[in-house]
Amino acid sequence: MVLSDKDIKNALETGRIKISPKPDFSTQLGSCSIDLRLGNTFRVFEYSKKPYIDPSKKDYSNEITSEIVVKTGEQFIMQPGDFVLAVTYEKITLPTDLMGRLEGRSSLGRLGIVVHSTASIFDPGWDGKCVLELGNLGRMAVALTVGMRICAMTFEELSSPADVPYSKKKSAKYKIQNGPAESRIHEDKQ
Predict the structure, then answer these.
(1) CB–CB of 44/65 below 8 Å?
(2) Range of the domain at 145
(3) Which residues, including other chains, have CB under 8 Å from residue 131's CB and lie 6 or more apart?
(4) Which residue of 6, 23, 98, 99 shows the fewest CB atoms closer than 10 Å?
(5) Which of 68, 69, 180, 177 is nearest to 129 (CA)?
(6) What digits encode the pLDDT tens for the residues 22-43?
(7) Is the backbone of residue 112 left (phi > 0), alpha (psi -120 to 50) or beta?
(8) How confident is the model over 48-75, as pLDDT tens digits?
């Protein structure tokens, strides 16, 4: 069951869901979601340094990406065809009986901006900033302002609390993220 605006507000007020800093309900609370804002840290791909990506190579992302910090209120320009990692301004903590689902905003989608390529589900027990897989599918550059509403998160109740929430998984690669961590696919067990 997806939580309504009333249920989201109640879950935030009781601490069942934690969002820091506290969202402004008048601008961020939707009928069944809460808007999250764009953080100031981006991980960009330096595609001219390497001819290809080798996901099996340990720490390859550090060789082909770099982190950029943009001041609050300033803009990050997404060129056509760009793909970057970014984070939300807010930190989210989920209980063991709720999952989060991240969705892009239609207003940005209509400009060609996709917010996530594949990673839309946030497991029960998630604790950290949400990493966004931003892409510009359009033919024109789009200016994204740090602090703007960039995506929406919905919350779904599980049939029972998870036995092993994300925060307790030994194999969890992205626990307590504060920045746009590079891919850690090389840590997958084959």
Answers:
(1) yes
(2) 5-159
(3) 85, 86, 87, 119, 174, 177, 180, 181
(4) 6
(5) 177
(6) 999 999 999 999 999 999 999 9
(7) left
(8) 777 777 777 766 666 788 899 999 889 9
- Tokens 């340094």 belong to 49
Residue 121: the pLDDT is 86
Torsions phi, psi of 159, nearest 5? Answer: -65, -25
Report yes or no on 179 lying in a domain.
Answer: no
Whether 133 is catalytic is yes
pTM of the model: 0.85
Given a contact cutoff of 8 angstroms between Cβ atoms, the answer to whether 91 and 153 are in contact is no
Task: Single out the catalytic residue among 63, 133, 156, 157.
Answer: 133
pLDDT at residue 173, as a whole number: 45
